[in-house]
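Pilot study result, target chain (122 residues):
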Amino acid sequence: MLVLSIDDVQWADATSLDVLHYLARRFAKSETPALLLLTLRMGERAMRPALTEWRTDMERAVPLTHLQLGPLTAEDILRLLQAFGGAGGKDGRRAADLEHFGQWLFAETEGQPFYLMETLKF
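Predicted structure:
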């Protein structure tokens, strides 16, 4: 199976979008087992009209699955921290510290996964 992942499609030029559209149609027609994973940031500004048209054309040509990803919740961040470092500690102090740190991370990053991971690197 072929997997092609392209991030930030909103910045692609018209030619690149045409290539992706061609590949999707070609893979579907030839029944090639392929997954095109395209990420598109749906910021506060509306999408360019050309990109909206391209996406509509893609939906006509091949079946698409849309997954809208939002920020992590404070609970998500706490579970992530527990997976990284555990919630151990006999007196519960470590769990309380981890929860406090998770709340701080949530406030600092607003739950944005990229910012969260970059903050944890420091």
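One observation from the pilot: The chain has a mean pLDDT of 88. A full batch analysis is planned for the follow-on phase.
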